[in-house]
Amino acid sequence: MPPPCPSSQGEGARYLPHHVTTPTTPRPWVTDFVLLGAIWGSSFLFMRMAVVDFGPLATAFVRVAIAAAFLLPMLLLRGLLPQLKAHAGRVFLVGVLNSGIPFACFSFALLSITTGLSAILNATVPLFGALVAWVWLKDRPTGSRVLGLALGFAGVAMLAWDKATFKPDAVSGIAPGWAVLACLLATFCYALSASFTRRFLTGVPPLVTATGSQIGASLGLALPAIWLWPTKTPGLPAWAALVALGVVCTGVAYVLYFRLIEHAGPAKALAVTFLVPVFAVLYGTVLLGEALTGWMLGCGAVIVLGTALSAGLLKWER
Q1: Structure-model confidence comparison of residues 298 and 8, the more confident one
Q2: Which residue(s) pair with 15 in the sheet?
Q3: Is residue 232 classed exposed, middle or buried when 0-12, 13-18 and 19+ CB atoms within 10 A define those classes?
Q4: How high is the mean pLDDT of the chain?
Q5: What span, in angstroms and rounded, lies between the C-alpha atoms of 121 and 133?
Q6: Which are the contacts of 50, defined by CB distance < 8 A and separation ≥ 6?
Q7: Which of 27, 81, 140, 269 could form a disulfide with 261 if both were Cys (CB 3.0 to 4.6 A apart)?
Q8: Backbone angles phi, psi at 80, to 5 degrees
Q9: In angstroms, rounded to a whole number, what is the distance separating the alpha carbons of residues 201 and 209?
Q10: Quick one: which of 182, 179, 153 has its CA closest to 165?
């Protein structure tokens, strides 16, 4: 999932009921956009592979620790350490909200629900982002964005209702209802961190925020992860999955994400959230044999439409 975006506002796509325009020239950022969606879509697969051996907290901790180790040399080479020190407290707090809690929540959820379902729920990040910005930053949505909020939450309610049972799963012992709530807590934390970043960290270089947030998440998760470290030594596939999560799905993905913001703007960068479930569902279906239902697809479409409207990426015009 994306780190806090400097702003969820920007020039969005325009929705016209009787006319649709398509770009006639290729965009140089399209490759980064698709590649980032494919990478973040695979993160749910790798989390699923790792959490069975490591458990949720250890999975989240090792992931952010590897990402911090990957990003820190780049920050040092660019001479940004003084800025990290100057903003350390706030950046570390963003790390707990934007990486520590969400990664642990999604790892927990993947013990009892599919990677596709968790990725669809992850697509509600801009939806919660618009709601938090409305309440906290007084960025009141109007017109189509209000409609988007209503549609998005209706889609989440329909999808969650299908998994609303709180009876323990026969295999994992975790009720799917708790897993869905964990995913929604993760996306709400993403929204909080985005507004916090917009309010208190505007102007801080993105690499400082990315690196410092992973260090902060590592510090926040260290003691709980050590306390609940698995008694049985995790296997090599689980370790390989965590290396892929830390280096590719977090470190490399952050570089791509911030480059996408620079080349395409924050609104288009935020839209990558809608592409992530496509790849996550594809990976889960092909590699893990997960079932894909029509209900999931229908609710996912409602969520994506509502989120796009609420974030201003689509606009309804009479």
Answers
A1: 298
A2: 316
A3: exposed
A4: 82
A5: 19
A6: 59, 62, 63, 107, 234, 238, 241, 242, 245
A7: 269
A8: -100, 5
A9: 8
A10: 179
Q: With a cut of 90, say whether residue 10 has pLDDT above it.
A: no
Buried b (16+ CB within 10 A) or exposed e, 8-43: bbbebeebeeeeeeeeeeeeebeebbeebbbbbbbb
C-alpha to C-alpha distance for 273 and 197, rounded to whole angstroms: 18
What is the rounded CA–CA span in Å between residue 291 and residue 284? 8
pLDDT tens per residue across span 42-87: 999 999 999 999 999 999 999 999 999 999 999 999 999 999 999 9
DSSP symbols for the chain: -PPPPS-S-S----B-TT-----SS--TTHHHHHHHHHHHHHHHHHHHHHHHHH-HHHHHHHHHHHHHHHHHHHHHHTT-HHHHHHTHHHHHHHHIIIIIHHHHHHHHHTTTS-HHHHHHHHTTHHHHHHHHHHHHS-----THHHHHHHHHHHHHHHHHHTT---SPPTTTS--HHHHHHHHHHHHHHHHHHHHHHHHH-TTS-HHHHHHHHHHHHHHHHHHHHHHT--SSPPPHHHHHHHHIIIIIIIIIHHHHHHHHHHHH-HHHHHTHHHHHHHHHHHHHHHHS-----HHHHHHHHHHHHHHHHHTTSS-B--
Higher pLDDT pick, 2 / 242: 242
Q: What is the pLDDT of residue 13?
A: 37
Residue 14 identity: R
Q: Which residues contact 115 (CB under 8 A, 6 or more apart)?
A: 44, 45, 47, 48, 280, 281, 283, 284, 288, 290
Q: Are 190 and 51 in contact (CB under 8 A)?
A: no
Q: Is 223 exposed, middle or buried (0-12, 13-18, 19+ CB in 10 A)?
A: exposed
Q: Residue 263: exposed, middle, or buried by beta-carbon count in 10 A (0-12, 13-18, 19+)?
A: middle
pLDDT above 70 coverage of the chain, percent? 83
* Residues β-bridged to residue 316: 15
